[in-house]
Design goal:
It contains five helices and 18 strands. By secondary structure, it is of the alpha+beta class.
């Protein structure tokens, strides 16, 4: 697999599952998504998921070691991880891990002021990985209380909407913030219930959508492999979708749509 020099700064550049059971995750996602796997370059606790030979996501057996919940994590490309970490801290958010040297670059995990966890990456990226490609992540969605406050935070941290040709653009559509790179929607930020008291059972998070040909089949396979259906298959604005949970607790959505 070839590496490109740099992804567009501020754009999504990878997604990774932090799990507590690597073999179990591979069996589950292999059955549900049709993925195959190869060993990652970071050791036996890491693997790369492939769809038709193209990289889709990373899986790391590190959730228990790091003391973090099993979850899908979205990573964003940055030019300087130290500068990004400083921007995050300056805005009363948290850098939980790193920046650390990892393979050909540097990575860190952080949480925005509302508590949504995300990662950022300084370094070369996989050329074949792309949001919106069939079999790969269809898009990323921040689910939070105040999408506009979050857009200001991420816009300042990742330099969105600066007017520079090498940065992401931001559009406000239907009370959501759409993030675009190279003419494609790569992420969106959605809020709601700002006036209501926060629900402790609902935590802000970056949520990953994966493209599938058949949502019902994916949901049936998830249940057969020990997972659960968190939201039954239904029609959305962009296609049919269902939200699933893997046996270790990782939450994600499968969709027939290709954009936010």
């Amino acid at each position: 697999m070839s590496l490109t020099d740099r992804a567009v700064p501020g754009a999504p550049c990878w997604v990774s599952l932090l799990t507590g059971d690597l073999a179990g995750a591979q069996a589950f996602y292999g059955a549900v998504m049709g993925w195959t796997f190869r060993r990652g370059s970071l050791g036996e606790d890491f693997s790369v998921a492939l769809s038709d030979g193209r990289p889709v996501a990373g899986i790391g057996n590190i959730a228990r070691r790091m003391g973090v919940p099993v979850s899908w994590t979205s990573y964003f490309a940055v030019e300087d991880a130290d500068v990004t970490a400083a921007r995050i801290r300056e805005r009363s958010a948290t850098v939980a891990v790193g920046p650390l040297s990892v393979g050909p670059g540097r990575a860190a995990l952080a949480a925005d002021p509302a508590g949504a966890v995300f990662g950022f990456w300084e370094g070369r990226t996989l050329r074949e990985w792309q949001i919106g490609r069939q079999g790969a992540p269809a898009w990323l969605e921040l689910r939070t209380r105040d999408a506009f406050a979050s857009a200001i935070f991420y816009g300042e941290v990742f330099e969105w909407a600066t007017g520079r040709p090498d940065r992401c653009e931001v559009r406000y559509e239907d009370e959501a913030v759409m993030v675009r790179s190279g003419g494609r929607t790569v992420a969106c930020l959605r809020g709601g219930a700002i006036e209501a008291a926060p629900d402790p059972q609902i935590r802000p998070r970056w949520h990953v959508y994966f493209y599938v040909d058949d949502v019902e089949k994916a949901a049936e396979s998830a249940v057969a492999c020990g997972g659960t259906v968190a939201a039954e298959p239904a029609e959305s604005e962009v296609g049919r979708e269902a939200t699933l949970r893997d046996p270790d607790g990782g939450l994600f959505t499968v969709t027939t749509g290709s954009q936010c």
